[in-house]
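Recall the central idea of this unit: under ordinary conditions, the amino acid sequence of a chain determines the structure it adopts. In this exercise we apply that idea directly, starting from the sequence alone.
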Amino acid sequence: MTDRPGVDDGPAGLAALPRAARDRLPADVERLLRYVALETPTGDVAALDALADLVVADGAATGLAGGRVPTARSTADAVRLELPGRGARAGDSPALLLAHHDTVHPAGSVPVRRGGDGVLHGPGTYDMKAGIVVALSAAALLRGLGLDHRPVRLLVTPDEEVGSPASADLVRAAAAGAAYALGLEAPTPDGGLKTARRGSTRLRLEVTGRAAHAAVDPGAGVSATDELVDQLLAARRYLAGHPSVLVNVGTLQGGGRTNVVAAHAHADLGLRFVTAASERAVLAGLTAPEPVRAGARVSARVLSRRPPWEPGPASDRLLAEVTAAARAIGQRVTGGPAPGAADTNLTAAAGVATLDGFGPLGGGAHAATEHVLLGSVAERSALLAAVLHRV
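Accordingly, the structure predicted from this sequence is:
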């Protein structure tokens, strides 16, 4: 991994990248509109696989070979594509690009709307179908301008929004032998890249009680819902001693009738960690719960886990080289830690130099206001192509 000012910049050179990216912006916008129009909530296998087929076909037209790849569970497929290196960089280790094509929005809940102000609203515009478009556009720019570049490996996962439980092994496998990994998630609001991320763990607390008539024989029952409430209060008290850890109780489910003592209940917690040490401490405390009331059985299990990606010299060095590549095309790049987790947590944990945030600018991730600034698609495509050429 090195910035190579001496490599051949091709017949048009790096100076041509920004203009070439702007020239192809209408085609990139049309591609993004096609992707966004096909809504892909996590778990909708048919829709996700349909979009995967579109990405494979678009990749093939840009010189990327590969296809759909089964995940570890009976879910939608991932996409893995490879772009051979060119010229003096053909034999270099590959760059890994990470994206996902699932979204958090239920189908039909967020309308797609293109404003006259160059803003596209809709599910997946910002998080993160525009990032997939940036990857394919960067590949087209490298090919069209004849720029030397290292080999490129693109992995698009179908379950990132729920922690990548089925595709985490694919991410780790794709990272093997990679020179570095770049995430195509959205940048910070000012366009900055991400040099670290909180770890993210989804933890399920499960309670088994004993059903009984709630009026005739309540003493014969053991309420799973009451036990779950007490367990959540105990977890809150425990986490008060770990102020750097974020927790969100995302799902509560239990019982069925008001005249029946609930026999089953569970809650799903989302936990965010800054450091691996805090993750170890908190998970040790929360994964061995003790029942509060006699007769209740309580357990905890990890549904998905992405370890903390802590700041370090590998990301710092990569950011310095990316900054130099950006400067060569007239862009200024900054970087810093981010609160959210992504598949780049996995590559960083595997020891691969990693940066994230190469997607276009916008806002409203996971909200009805989700949108992307279409003009920034060209800027980020040019940036990514410059990095793949120079770094």
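Confidence is low (pLDDT under 50) at residues 2-8.
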